[in-house]
Design a protein that fits this description.
Layout (H helix, E strand, L loop, with lengths): L2 E6 H11 L13 H17 L3 E5 L7 H6 L15 H13 L3 E4 L5 H10 L6 E6 L17 E9 L3 E5 L1 H8 L6 H8 L14 H10 L3 H6 L6 H9 L1 H7 L12 E4 L4 H10 L3 H11 L16
Parallel strand pairs: 1-2, 1-4, 2-3, 4-5
Antiparallel strand pairs: 3-7, 5-6
This protein binds manganese (II) ion (2 copies).
């Protein structure tokens, strides 16, 4: 049975950056904390789960035009990335490339959509584990069924060290709804971090009750009159929002993907590791992957923890 590990690299590097001290730097003083956390997490996951294949998935566009066209507020109020983070994305790509690891992105789309497309094609007998700190991806969870394999989501709990694993029962236990209805639930509840207000007065509990009571958001809108006057009014008021969310909240499962990588370059890997004080995490990941790591270098860099 093939088992793929999909890492939501954009989300995880961001989390690792905030979870680890910025005092972890390259000899030239530039922070490499996020990369170190990401490489160590990958090594741990590879060791623990033993996947046949690992894919590192990046946002190509973190705020895709079609989503913004549908809803201008989508991620409109996001704070800019802190200084020190963006260069780590470029360096991480270089390190993964030298490792011969495969990176994936969907031109014009988010990592969410690239991962959705990969999961949408999960074949019978196949298993995919998605690792992310982006709860939108909960909607991709599915148990194996006839004709299709299983998708689990491993969600970051605190930093990137602890992960909560969601299969269908896990989503049901946490949110009280089937994973296939998570997008409806998220639409009603909203998501402040993405600039999505939700329906006025509807929190997790009401969203869950409504998703359980109605088979779809269309059915809910048609039945709005049966709600309390306040909820009925809020649903009427949210009509445009609910329509717009159809093009915003569901993760795409049909976008074009670009895959890069697969050629390891040990000399370059060793040079990058020394130059950026990444020798220990690079060695740990090489060990987990069962490939020859860079030779332990005696030159350069501060002593490695
Ligand atoms: Mn995302
Ligand atoms: Mn997202």
């Amino acid at each position: 049975m093939s088992h793929r590990l999909l890492l939501d690299t954009s989300s995880l590097l961001y989390r690792a950056f905030f979870a680890l001290p910025a005092s972890i730097t390259a000899p030239d003083g530039r922070p490499v904390n996020g990369i170190r956390g990401y490489l160590d997490m990958t090594a741990r996951l590879v060791t623990d789960l033993g996947p046949d294949r690992v894919l590192h998935v990046f946002d190509h566009d973190w705020r895709p035009a079609p989503r913004v066209a549908a809803y201008a507020g989508y991620k409109a109020a996001r704070a800019p990335d802190p200084e020190g983070l963006p260069p780590q994305f470029d360096l991480l790509r270089e390190v993964l490339d030298a490792f011969g690891q495969t990176t994936v992105e969907a031109p014009g789309w988010e990592a969410d959509d690239a991962i959705g497309t990969l999961c949408g094609a999960v074949a019978d007998g196949e298993r995919i584990d998605v690792v992310t700190g982006d709860r939108d991806l909960i909607q991709l969870v599915r148990d194996a069924s006839s004709g299709a394999g299983a998708v689990r989501v491993l969600f970051t709990v605190k930093g990137v060290k602890e992960l909560a694993c969601y299969d269908e029962a896990g989503v049901q236990g946490k949110y009280g709804i089937p994973a296939a209805r998570y997008a409806d639930f998220a639409t009603l509840r909203g998501d402040p971090s993405d600039g999505l207000p939700g329906v006025k007065g509807v929190g997790e509990k009401t969203a869950r009750d409504l998703v359980r009571r109605y088979g779809s958001l269309d059915e809910l809108r048609d039945g709005a009159g049966a709600q309390t006057p306040r909820l009925a009014a809020a649903l009427r008021e949210a009509d445009g929002y609910l329509t717009a969310m159809r093009a915003v909240v569901p993760v795409r499962t049909d976008v074009d993907l670009v895959e890069v990588g697969g050629r390891r370059d040990d000399a370059r890997l060793a040079a990058l590791a020394v130059e950026h004080n990444l020798e220990s995490p690079v060695r740990r990941l090489a060990e987990a992957l069962g490939v020859a790591g860079p030779p332990s270098a005696e030159v350069g860099g501060t002593p490695d923890a």
